[in-house]
Amino acid sequence: MLNFAQAQYLLLLLLIPFFFVIQALVLKMRRRRMKKFGDEALVSQLMPSYSKAKVWVRLVMFSLGFFFFVIGLSRPQIGAKLKEHETKGAEIMIVLDVSNSMLAEDYSPNRLERAKLAISRLVDKLRDDRIGLIVFAGNSFVQLPVTTDYVSAKMFLNSIDTGSVPVQGTAIGDAINTAMRSFSAQSEKSRAIIVITDGENHEDDPVAAAKQAADLGVRVFAIGVGSPEGKPIPVDGELLKDKDGEIVVTRLDEKVLQDMAQAGNGVYVRAGTSEFGLNPIIEDIRRMEDERYSSIVFEEFDEQFMYFLGIALFFFVVEMLIGDRRSRKHLFEH
């Protein structure tokens, strides 16, 4: 298996065709200058030592040297082998409410964007823990399977909006069940679900779902997003109204979230404007017994760049030794 550690340098290979184009243009301009002195064939006889063929040979040697130099610069590696890698940590499923009520502007710029920012900052602090992402409204689905690829986690997180789940509502219980099905087979001890929602208009029984999760050894935490006094919901530049034409005000339902967290052997935190609530929950999760995870990874590549740089040096030296003049033995032939 061949791998390039710095493959971006391979783009420099696109310069090689331009070397030949430039050389052709230089020779064309040279012929034009020679014509100013007289007949081209006569002027060429007055310069018997100049070899046009050697100019092209030198360019070929230089291009070959440049080719192998770029390959070496890209750090080719071979000999990768599969190795089992073991880490210790927790599996954390983030369950994020993406219903329209999360557009309320209790926080800046709104509930959903503030929650995404807090999750992104949490991901930055993770080391060996695994994280997954569930989005829900009227139903739920896995946005990101459990992983240690934190870069991908942040990419998936950035793509989330209220259109991620087409069915509106707040099916918290269904989201908890989806999270339960999404843990890896290796996970048995340190498993946690963090539900981030305003808790309003829940359509199923989140308390029962949390109790069932706790019975299976999974702790369920809750972060309440919003304010008890409530805020209107801006949608498409207007405030959302009900069927009677009244402006809808969405309020945080702390009671159901407190009961859910208690049933799930977790804790409930109301999100603040400065401290969203994830940090104290993560500290609580850290006190759980770490799970050991094993995964198969590629590692121990053998560097090969020095061989390509050596070949490049050979062609550069040959290019310098060739010169652009004919061999001397031809200069004095009659």
List keywords for this structure.
single chain, 334 residues, 39% helix, alpha/beta, six-stranded mixed beta sheet, 10 helices, three-stranded antiparallel beta sheet, disordered C terminus
Topology (elements, then pairings):
Layout: E1 3-4, H1 16-37, H2 40-45, H3 52-73, E2 76-78, E3 81-89, E4 91-97, H4 111-125, E5 130-136, E6 140-147, H5 150-158, H6 172-181, E7 191-197, H7 206-215, E8 218-224, E9 231-232, E10 234-235, E11 238-239, E12 249-250, H8 254-263, E13 268-270, H9 278-286, E14 291-299, E15 302-303, H10 305-322
Parallel strand pairs: 4-5, 4-7, 7-8, 8-13
Antiparallel strand pairs: 1-2, 2-15, 3-14, 5-6, 9-12, 10-11
Helix pairs in contact: 1-3, 3-10, 4-5, 6-7, 7-8
Explain what you see.
- The protein is an alpha/beta fold and 334 residues long.
- It has ten helices and 15 strands.
- It has helices spanning 16-37, 40-45, 52-73, 111-125, 150-158, 172-181, 206-215, 254-263, 278-286, 305-322, and strands at 3-4, 76-78, 81-89, 91-97, 130-136, 140-147, 191-197, 218-224, 231-232, 234-235, 238-239, 249-250, 268-270, 291-299, 302-303.
- It has a six-stranded mixed sheet, with helices on both faces. The protein has a three-stranded antiparallel sheet with strand order 1-2-15. Strands 3-14 form a two-stranded antiparallel sheet.
- A hairpin with a 2-residue loop joins strand 10 (234-235) and strand 11 (238-239).
